[in-house]
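[recover] target loaded
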């Protein structure tokens, strides 16, 4: 359920950022940090933080059934995660809570009807209404949610090497009230912009990749902050076996 689109969405965050962070110009003559210095420091913090809050949006997926339109996740290297995933056209939305190997997922009616055909979708919408399906990352219906919450895998995908291509600094601006320095370039003809905090430590707080048929945005915050630890109660949860029984008829 939702497996490949969800994994592809998570991977596309790395695809958005890796070429950009790998293409940076040297330091400025003014003595201010150059694009390369800013990009390298931002990449280093992103690759080594223990936890992170990530918001990712693909505006082209809003009208595409089954495609992931947005993810809003707080995640860490210990396998903990809290957030929401929304699918386009209307594939519905899912709330996720993950602590270690345990996973809770609560979906809305639109999600169940999109994921399960006919009477099964309606039955799931009623059976799991306002409740979480609870199991582990070893359970088939929940495996993909565990992968989307894997900060270690995301950081591994982000790892790249620097080259000599240019990445130009733009004028200082703000993102969500945070002073930033834009770093601009192109990847295969598609313009991208990274936003790095103007003050030290220089952290990547956002990025965009926009062009013909592409409109991706990602934001990062809460570097090193703990992922919320609360988990749904037993009364709020239904064992994943109920979902498996429904899928198997």
């Amino acid at each position: 359920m939702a497996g490949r689109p969800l994994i592809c969405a998570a991977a596309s965050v790395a695809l958005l950022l890796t070429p950009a962070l790998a293409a940076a110009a040297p330091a400025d003559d003014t003595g201010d940090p150059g694009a390369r210095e800013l990009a390298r420091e931002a990449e280093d913090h992103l690759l080594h933080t223990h936890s992170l809050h990530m918001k990712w949006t693909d505006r082209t997926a809003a009208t595409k059934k089954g495609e992931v339109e947005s993810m809003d996740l707080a995640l860490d290297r210990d396998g903990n995660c809290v957030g929401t995933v929304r699918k386009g056209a209307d594939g519905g939305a899912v709330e996720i809570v993950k602590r270690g190997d345990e996973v809770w997922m609560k979906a809305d009616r639109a999600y169940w009807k999109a994921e399960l055909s006919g009477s099964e979708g309606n039955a799931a919408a009623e059976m799991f209404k306002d409740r979480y399906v609870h199991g582990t990352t070893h359970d088939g219906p929940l495996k993909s949610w565990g992968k989307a919450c894997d900060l270690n895998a995301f950081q591994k995908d982000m790892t790249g090497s620097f080259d000599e291509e240019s990445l130009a600094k733009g004028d200082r601006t703000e993102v969500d009230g945070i002073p930033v320095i834009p770093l601009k370039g192109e990847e295969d003809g598609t313009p991208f912009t990274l936003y790095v905090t103007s003050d030290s430590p220089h952290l990547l707080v956002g990025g965009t990749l926009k062009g013909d048929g592409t409109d991706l945005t990602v934001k990062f915050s809460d570097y090193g902050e703990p992922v919320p630890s609360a988990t749904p109660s037993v009364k709020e949860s239904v064992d994943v076996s109920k979902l498996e029984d429904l899928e198997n008829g």
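[recover] notes: Residues 91 and 233 are 26 Å apart (CA to CA).
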